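hey all, quick one before standup. I had two proteins in the batch that finished overnight and I want to keep them in one place so we stop losing track of which output belongs to which input. First protein below, input sequence then structure tokens straight from the run.
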Amino acid sequence: MNTEIYNAVRAAVRELVTLERPDTRRVRLLVVGCSTSEIAGGKIGKASVPELGGDVASAVLDEARALGVDAAFQCCEHLNRALAVERATAEKYGLDEVCAVPWPKAGGSCASAAYRLMKEPVLVESIQADAGLDIGCTLIGMHLKSVAIPIRLSMKSIGEAALSAALTRPKLIGGERAHYTL
């Protein structure tokens, strides 16, 4: 196990999920996208490292469980960016299950590792998560709620991969800034 990567991922999850928010909503569902190729210093999709996928997946699952958060792991484009989640999570959020099993070359090293680490894994087509971590520019935005807020975490990378994070908020549909007439 790469303890440096494992510890960095746990810290990133913890920092994002426990950030002070102006509202009282808490993160309930976290989406994670990960390129182990990028973590290792390679080009996304070209140098997959299954062991790093296991380290990242273990870290996310361990920290999410400790914080009481559900986790979803985005697969690569070969599985249409489906997500690996626990069956209980799919049922809790009413998610549409799809039929496939992620592997490092068709799903990604992280999502396939998470799938194998879960108690009762399933793939779902899409989600609308409260927060997201993107390790290596995997483009998780399609799996966030409508209004995503970029978050600058204290760490900027995991290994050699750029780290991006986002929280979401409800849509603003009125209030003192709204205009109702020309």
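OK second protein, same deal, sequence then tokens:
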Amino acid sequence: MKSTVYKSIELFIIFVLIPVSFTIKYSPLIKGVIGLIGFIYVIFVLLKVEKLKFKIAKNLNWKQFWKTTLFKLSIIIVVTILFVWLTNKTSLFVVLLNKPKLWVFILFVYTFLSVYPQELIYRTFFFERYNGMLKSDNLFLFINAILFSLAHLLFKNTLVIILTFLGGLLFALTYKKTNSTLLVSIEHAIYGCWLFTVGMGEMLGFPS
């Protein structure tokens, strides 16, 4: 399981073959089973092969994290409000204003059932498993962002691919700096929840 060849095949199956296959029309049940098996495999490798322990590190720099994240969020807020205002004004804060209970429910479900599993796979597993396979750290981060955007091909939306690529870069940089699944999950949840809040959630699969 430690060989480069095995890891390369593993990477291709988990991060390319499976996401691309999800763009093809076939049984949602089969897709769900494939996704579940893949996730179980990821957890197994993290715990039994990489010997990773799921615990919150004691030396996290929370002050720096919040300072950096809120700065990036402020830029995202300005850009996205302008974007929604100019492209589809009626969608601006539509769920928050009209369905506040649904808004709260979706934020909760999204954070714990979508964001955290994604970060376990695309940051924790990817970095722990494949770090060192490439000499260039920048190329490694770039590939991580590309693969993260590839996971969103099923939405068949160019803007989603661009947004998830940019998000993938931000999350990869955060994980590289902090080595914390918790921190990168919080950052991911904040940005994702904001996109849903501002009115861009429908293209990302959020109910509206």
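Flagging for whoever picks this up: DSSP finds eight helices and no strands in the chain. The two ends are 44 Å apart (CA to CA).
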